[in-house]
């Protein structure tokens, strides 16, 4: 990918994941700056990756070609307007990773800048196993789209969406969904403990089963996921009873309700921030 000078505004979990992916794949550290109000996360980034750090957003932005907007959604407006008041933003590419803030709203926050790509990554990006959805308005150049796609590909798979509203679908299916799987695993671990396993063994049993199941899905793209399920489900056996219990208790409705709740919240956030 092109090695443009890039600044991360907000040095939290997601920025650290992306920076780690970039550095691991050879992006020059002297072209990466991170900015954050408090020092500890910056110091860790400096010592782990030798990138540039600053507590002044303006300083990070000044010399950068690309600005990654990586603060919490409720802080975005204040942060962007302070930037816009203090430094020229013309000619820069903005890449937002924030949930629930549309590009038109980001443009307002940035004093009319329109060169904005919106992305939705997830926390497995920290292991290079992320999934990121991207959207760019039609006026964003092919070169800028390519840069944004290459950037997020440093930490996993990427998928572009044509309509901005589909970013909320990405949130429901991939941005938030690691937490659904954790909730499921927590419940399984608890039940395994009730059945007599100690905490660590219960965790090992469920985590290894999940990892193996995920790998089976990835390594067998020719098989529908339902076919992989069928392979586990012996006729008259144990799995059939467990799966039947899920189905009789509305697993499909439960999952679609949860995903719709995530979309609804993203839509509410778009009005709030
Ligand atoms: N976590 C997730 O699963 C995902 C999160 N996102 C999005 O990523 C964004 C960041 O989330 P995440 O990394 O999890 O959050 P974190 O809280 O880990 O990181 C946000 C960082 O922003 C810093 N910050 C606060 N105010 C400012 C400011 N004015 N200028 C610069 N930096 C500031 C905070 O510093 P300090 O701690 O010192 O206050 C903190 O380090 C959010 O918009 C979220 O919607 C997107 C996809 C997935
Ligand atoms: O919960 C959130 O709002 C963010 C966006 C996706 C994952 N975490």
UniProtKB/TrEMBL annotation:
<dbReference type="InterPro" id="IPR029036">
    <property type="entry name" value="P5CR_dimer"/>
</dbReference>
<comment type="function">
    <text>Catalyzes the reduction of 1-pyrroline-5-carboxylate (PCA) to L-proline.</text>
</comment>
<dbReference type="Pfam" id="PF03807">
    <property type="entry name" value="F420_oxidored"/>
</dbReference>
<keyword id="KW-0641">Proline biosynthesis</keyword>
<keyword id="KW-0028">Amino-acid biosynthesis</keyword>
<feature type="domain" description="Pyrroline-5-carboxylate reductase catalytic N-terminal">
    <location>
        <begin position="6"/>
        <end position="100"/>
    </location>
</feature>
<keyword id="KW-0560">Oxidoreductase</keyword>
<dbReference type="GO" id="GO:0004735">
    <property type="term" value="F:pyrroline-5-carboxylate reductase activity"/>
</dbReference>
<dbReference type="Pfam" id="PF14748">
    <property type="entry name" value="P5CR_dimer"/>
</dbReference>
<keyword id="KW-0963">Cytoplasm</keyword>
<dbReference type="InterPro" id="IPR000304">
    <property type="entry name" value="Pyrroline-COOH_reductase"/>
</dbReference>
<feature type="domain" description="Pyrroline-5-carboxylate reductase dimerisation">
    <location>
        <begin position="164"/>
        <end position="269"/>
    </location>
</feature>
<comment type="pathway">
    <text>Amino-acid biosynthesis; L-proline biosynthesis; L-proline from L-glutamate 5-semialdehyde: step 1/1.</text>
</comment>
<dbReference type="InterPro" id="IPR028939">
    <property type="entry name" value="P5C_Rdtase_cat_N"/>
</dbReference>
<dbReference type="InterPro" id="IPR008927">
    <property type="entry name" value="6-PGluconate_DH-like_C_sf"/>
</dbReference>
<dbReference type="InterPro" id="IPR036291">
    <property type="entry name" value="NAD(P)-bd_dom_sf"/>
</dbReference>
<keyword id="KW-0521">NADP</keyword>
<comment type="similarity">
    <text>Belongs to the pyrroline-5-carboxylate reductase family.</text>
</comment>
<protein>
    <recommendedName>
        <fullName>Pyrroline-5-carboxylate reductase</fullName>
        <ecNumber>1.5.1.2</ecNumber>
    </recommendedName>
</protein>
